[in-house]
């Protein structure tokens, strides 16, 4: 039986005649790993660094290597974390903080064979190449079966001109990228669920599918889909296709500014999803700086800030590369408190008790999950598990 369901009418804000091919995804299937994770009051994830990222020259255990990151994922899984993913970037020589950068698609997919419960989300620039739908459909179905429904795609369409140019073309206009991605995922959803061969000739890209067929089908309709976005076009896209939106704080990295600006942003996301009779979950990426006392926490923060990253070409964020991303707009607004530049969407600094208070406030603001980053993943994740996670459970944020 096909898992496709009726498509609701398109909102007036969309182009005339625009629609989407909707399937019952893993969030709508009670027995899926994602649905089980979403039952947590606050989902917990790890936002890995599969590349050299320097927010400080203070010594840490961090490294881009697969073995290190696989160990961190297994450490998170042992603590009951729900998911893990990482960015992927395509930058010229000198563009990374260091010299190494693993691909998130391959690395997170590879972790499916060495984990048992944690969801693994691979960031894929779905328009670069361009990808052919049959490749993504087959690769996705294969990883879905290897992981038993725990693998998914963090959908990004590319915001830097330099990345598009690396693949031999000029950057595609912002909103058009989401139109192209919508067509791609309409086709992917059909390939993942169709009972017969499926054909399609792209309106927006050069590919076509003639009698396409994918088997086996994904276990829960399709792999988990996440969209990292802050624009209205991206939110419209994610509301139709994704289970999770990976968002930023419109007001900046400081927790006070985040808490002031997130509620209307999340309300708008939920309203957009409701207009097409869907629900989505929101995730945000805090960097956690914590020790057991305020004095120890301040000393750790000072050590990070007093040791700025050594120049290695471009610094984290790569601000000199032209970008049309909307998610970070407004974060330099001087009416909002700014953070320390530690690299996350928001910064959460304090003792374990203070960290949990900020988590509670984020939950009240509408956040459904946290993708955590740390200055030193190994040591800080251990501190989190021993000192913060028990308080989260006592506060009703985790089962």
Automatic annotation (TrEMBL):
UniProt keyword annotation of Cytoplasm present: no
Origin: domain of life: Bacteria
- Keywords, A to Z? Flavoprotein, FMN, Monooxygenase, Oxidoreductase
State one Pfam family annotation.
Bac_luciferase
Q: Which residues form a coiled coil?
A: none
Domain annotation Luciferase-like: ranges: 60-368
Q: Name one GO molecular function term.
A: monooxygenase activity
Listed name of the protein: FMNH2-dependent dimethyl sulfone monooxygenase
Taxonomic source organism? Pseudochelatococcus lubricantis
């Amino acid at each position: 039986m096909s898992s496709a369901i009726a498509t609701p009418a398109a909102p007036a804000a969309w182009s005339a005649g625009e629609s989407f091919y909707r399937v019952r995804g893993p969030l709508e299937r009670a027995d899926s790993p994602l649905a089980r994770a979403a039952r947590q009051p606050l989902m917990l994830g790890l936002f890995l660094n599969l590349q050299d990222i320097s927010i400080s020259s203070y010594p840490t255990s961090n490294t881009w290597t697969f073995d290190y990151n696989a160990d961190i994922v297994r450490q998170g899984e042992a603590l009951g974390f729900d998911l893990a993913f990482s960015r992927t970037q395509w930058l010229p020589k000198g563009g990374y903080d260091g010299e190494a950068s693993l691909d998130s698609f391959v690395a997170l997919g590879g972790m499916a064979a060495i984990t048992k419960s944690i969801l693994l989300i691979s960031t894929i620039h779905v328009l670069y190449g361009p990808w052919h739908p049959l490749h993504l459909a087959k690769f996705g179905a294969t990883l879905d079966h290897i992981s038993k429904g725990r693998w998914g795609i963090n959908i990004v369409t590319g915001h830097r001109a330099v990345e598009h140019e690396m693949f031999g073309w000029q950057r595609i206009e912002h909103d058009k990228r989401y139109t192209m991605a919508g067509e791609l995922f309409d086709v992917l959803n059909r390939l993942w669920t169709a009972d017969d061969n499926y054909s399609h000739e792209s309106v927006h890209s050069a590919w076509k599918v003639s009698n396409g067929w994918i088997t086996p089908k994904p276990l829960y309709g399709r792999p988990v889909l996440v969209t990292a976005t802050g624009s209205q076009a991206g939110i419209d896209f994610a509301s139709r296709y994704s289970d999770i939106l990976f968002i930023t704080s419109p007001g900046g990295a400081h927790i006070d500014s985040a808490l002031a600006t997130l509620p209307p942003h999340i309300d708008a996301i939920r309203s957009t999803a409701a207009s097409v009779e869907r629900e989505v979950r929101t995730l945000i990426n805090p960097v956690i700086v914590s020790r057991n006392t305020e004095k120890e926490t301040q000393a750790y923060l000072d050590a990070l800030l007093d040791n700025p990253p050594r120049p290695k070409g471009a610094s984290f964020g790569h601000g000199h590369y032209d970008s049309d991303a909307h998610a970070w707009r407004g974060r330099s607004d001087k009416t909002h408190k700014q953070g320390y530049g530690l690299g996350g969407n928001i910064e959460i600094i304090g003792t374990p008790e203070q960290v949990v208070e900020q988590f509670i406030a984020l939950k009240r603001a509408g956040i459904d999950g946290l993708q955590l980053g740390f200055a030193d993943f190994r040591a800080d994740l251990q501190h989190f598990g021993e000192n913060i996670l028990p308080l989260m459970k006592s506060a009703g944020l985790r089962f």
